[in-house]
Structure formats: structure tokens, C-alpha cells
Amino acid sequence: MHAWLCEDPIGVDALNWKELPTPTPKAGEVLIEIKAASLNFPDILIVQNKYQIKPPLPFVPGAEYAGTVTALGEGVKHLQIGQAVACLSGTGGFGTHTLAPAALCMPLPPGFPMVDAAAFIMIYATSYHALVDRAQLRAGETVLVLGAAGGVGTSAIQIAKAMGARVIAAASSAEKCALCTSLGADATINYSTENLRDRLKELTGGKGPDVIYDPVGGDITEQAFRSIAWRGRYLVVGFASGPIPALPFNLALLKGASIVGVFWGEFAKREPQANTAMMKELAQWYGQGKIKPAIDRTMPMSELKAAYAHMGSRQVMGKLVLVNDTN
């Protein structure tokens, strides 16, 4: 097997494509022949030693991937050799093969493309957990999605629409806003050319959005929170812009609003049965055509460093997926 190995987490340039022994799965593990792996924001942080999870060195980055089971460890009952699966295990995806905990593997129904499967779990699980579980979103409410053209943003648009909500998508360019409209957004705000608060007041008749989905952080957070509706729920999803914002607590008091943390990974660990039920429903929604990952582009696994550079330029719309044409 071959894989991109991180031996010194000082950045992408230190990654090396190496031939490694193909491992044998231990009890509870499976060996996966990787067909596709998506690039997510944490994949950038983890090779810079800036992520909250710091795997022991050396490690292969790549949190999320899809492929075929080629060997089973002892005690694995719900999977079989030759089965197509998607997995989000945190590391291991940027290579031709990897070991994965069988419990983290999502069996794929027939006809589920590998590229879509590799771009599925993280974004849809995060957005479903955020909007349905944490925000208790109701049909007819208005959702503002910040960073709406990114991976989780595009999934949030689709899930909010599937729940019967009105969606306002905010993004940083006309091209990104156009993508959001194509995914079902009812209105868009280009916050590089429009005033966010003024436009939200116009689009909501002064009421403000009931739910704000924020994977961006930074300067835009306080602007958005000042526009939230009475009893609004502000979902803290991530900080893709870099800075972690601080909010004056009186803003929450004045609007009777809630600041709600969203940590899907911890939810999955602490409430595995609820997470399994959620993933089954999401797979059904995919089959019904309610949700489908927006794929920015696919690139060969050998071009991982170029893929990192493209993501770092903040030009990715939806998900970027790396593929192994031949393993």
C-alpha cells in the first residue's frame, strides 16, 4: 500500500507519499481499499499540529473516506469482504488502504457513488445534529447559513430545506451565492458587497433569522448575532475564518436567544444509538434525492498537496474529493 505520511506536523509540505506494509486488521477492525477521500478543514489543522486531536506520529491524515472492505478482524459481524463502506475515523484516508474501526463504518446501499460517500458523513451528520437535534428546527422558520458555499454550509442548506425551513445563504462571492441558490436557498447575501445586517432586516421584515448556522466565526459572528430573532438559536459549528469570536452576553439576554454548541463527533461517541439512527435517516434522504453532496472537484490522490493549496485559497465550493484510480 501507499499513503501520505505525516512524520513531522509542521504543515502540508512535510507530507510524503510512501510505500508502507499493508496492515492486518485486529479485533474489531477492517481493512479498507480506499476509492475516494474528501478533504475537510480539520485535515489542514491536523498536519499543522493545530487540531484538538493530535494523533501519535507518524500518521496518515484523511479523516473521511469510502472504499471496499478487503479483510475483517476478529469479531466483526455487521460487515463482509467486498462490502462498500464510508468511514470517518479521523485519520488514514489519504492512501490506498487503511485500517478502520468496524463500528465507524457506514455500509453503503447499492448505487451509492464512492465520491459522494467520501463527502457525506462529516457534513451531513454535523448539519443534521445542529439543525434537527440542537436547534430543534421547525418547518416555516428562517435559517441563516453563514459560509454557505462550503462543505457543511451546502449540507445545511439542503437539510434545512428538507425540514421545511426558509433558507438565507450568506457567502463571499456571486459565484458562491449562485451555487447556494442552485441547492435550494430561498435568498442569498454576498457579504463581500452587501451589509449583512441591513440585508437580513430586509429579507426577514425586521424579525431576523430564527436559527443561525455558523461554521465561520471571526468578525461576522457578532454582526449575525445582533440580527437574530426573538428566541433565536445561534449554532456554533466551527471557526473556518480562524479567529474564535467573543460575544457580549447582553445580546443573548436582549433577544432571549440561545448560543448552542455543536460538536457532532462527541455526540456520536456519547450517544451512539441516536447517531446510528440519524445516519440511517440521512442515507434514506440521499436515496430519496433530498440531499446530495456538492462536489467542487475530484483530484488524483497523488495531488494531495495541490488539493490542500486549493482548499487553503478558500475557493472550494462544496467538497473536494481525492480519488484512487488504481490501487
Give a description of the structure.
The chain has 327 residues and is an alpha/beta fold. The protein folds into two domains: 2-120 and 293-323, Medium-chain alcohol dehydrogenases, catalytic domain (Quinone Oxidoreductase, Chain A, domain 1); 122-265, Rossmann fold (3-Layer(aba) Sandwich), CATH 3.40.50. It is built from eleven helices and 15 strands. The protein has helices at 41-46, 114-118, 121-134, 151-162, 174-182, 196-203, 220-225, 249-255, 264-270, 272-287, 304-312, and strands at residues 2-5, 16-19, 29-39, 64-72, 84-88, 97-101, 105-107, 142-145, 166-171, 187-190, 211-214, 233-236, 258-261, 295-300, 319-323. The strands form three sheets. Strands 3, 4, 5, 6, 7, 14 and 15 form a seven-stranded mixed beta sheet that branches. Helix 3 crosses helix 4 (151-162) and helix 3 (121-134) crosses helix 10 (272-287). The chain starts with a strand and ends with a strand. The mean pLDDT is 94.
- The total count of helices amounts to 11
Q: Which strand-content bin applies to the residues? A: 15-25%
| Rounded Rg | 20 Å
The residue-averaged pLDDT reads 94
Order of helices and strands: EEEHEEEEHHEHEHEHEHEHEHHEHE
* Total beta strand runs: 15
Helix content: 25-40%
Largest sheet: number of strands, sense, barrel closure = 7 strands, mixed
* Oligomeric form: single chain
